[in-house]
Amino acid sequence: MKVIIIGAGIGGTSAGIALQRLGHDVVIYDQMRENKPVGAALSLWSNGVKVLNWLGLGAEVAELGGDMATMAYRDGHSGEVLCDFSLAPVTAQSGQKPYPVARADLQALLMRTFGLDGIHLGRKVVAIADDGASVTVTFADGATDTADLVLGADGARSLTRTYVQPDGAPEIVREYSGYTNFNGLIPVDSAIGGADAWTTYVAEGKRAAVMPVAGDRFYFWFDVPQPAGIPYDRSEGKAPLEAAFAGWAPGVQALIDAIDPAVSLNRVEIWDITPFHTWAKGRVAILGDAAHNTSPDIGQGACSALEDSFALGIAFATNTVSVEDTLHRYEKMRAERAGELVLRARKRGDETHAYDPDATATWYESLRGSDGAGIIRGIVSNIEGSPVNLGGGVL
Fold it and tell me: What's the CATH number where 105 sits?
C-alpha cells in the first residue's frame, strides 16, 4: 500500500518509519526547503522514549538524551532553592528514563532512519482529493502524487486538518496561550544549575529554565507573559530577556550572559487549539500538531505526536476491513487522550503564568520545601495513560 505523509517533523517521520516497517511504500513531502527544526530541544518523557524504543531506536535516543537525574525549583529573585529532588521515581514508575533531546539531533536521526531519498523538501501541498479508491495531493507547482491514503502531519496551520473536518463544522482556530517563549542551547554551566538537573527559576509568573542534553549542553527556555503580536526583530537579540529578567538571581543573569543570539536563540509566541475529535475522513487522517497543537507546559507535545505514530502502526498492523475503517479506529484511539493532554497543558500554563495571581502564589509556596512527590505524580499521570504502555515489542 502506498502512503503519502505531508510533513517531515517528529510525527511525520516517526509515522513513516512505523508504516514503512510494516511493509508499506511511504513517501514524505514537506514545504520546508531545508531541515531547520523549530525550537532548540524538546522533552522526551517516558511515553515518547518508549515509542522510539518500539521503532528500534532506543540506543540511539539514549545517546542523544541528556542525563536529567534531578529537578530543582529556585526563587527567581533571590536564587534560593525552593525544592530539589530526584526524578528516579518517574523511571521506576513508568519503566523508562526520560530524556531531554536537541530537536535537530532527533529530527536528523528520524530522517536518516526513514531514508533521506524518500523525503522530498520544498513541496507545498495545496489541495487534497479523495475519490474513494485513492487520494491525490496537488503541489503549489501544479504537480500531483497519488496514494492509497494520506496522513497530514503538516503542523499547527494544517491544510489537512481543514480537509478532514465535516462540512459545515465550525472553523478550528488557534488560541493564544498568553506568553512568549525564548529558547536555545548553551554550554553547561554550574552557575546556572546542576549538569544533571532540570532547574527552573520562578517569579512574577515568569520562568527561566535549563535542561541537560547531549554534548554537555543545556537547553534553556524563558516564559514571558505578554500580549500577542509584540514586534520583535532578530537584531534585538536577547534585549527582551535582559529587560524582562532584570534584577533576577545571579543564575538567571549567568544564563542570559551565556546566550549567543547568533548561535542559538529562538522566540515564539505560544498558541494551542481547543481539542476537537474529527481526525479522519475517508482515506485521509491527521497527526501531531495538526491534530493536537498544544502548549509546552507539560512537555507532552512531541510525545503525543510519537503516540500518534504508535497508534497508527498498531491500527494498520491489526485491522484489515478497509483503509477508512482503520483510520477511524486510529482516531478513536487517540483523539480523547491527546485532547486531554492539551487541556492539562493549558491548565498548567494558567497556574504558572500568574493569570490568576493568587493561584500562582499558592503554587510558589507549595514548592518551598517540597519533596517532589506531588510533581512526580503529575508527571507520571501524563505518562500512564499512553497507549504505548500496552507494549508490543520492537517494530
Answer: 3.50.50.60
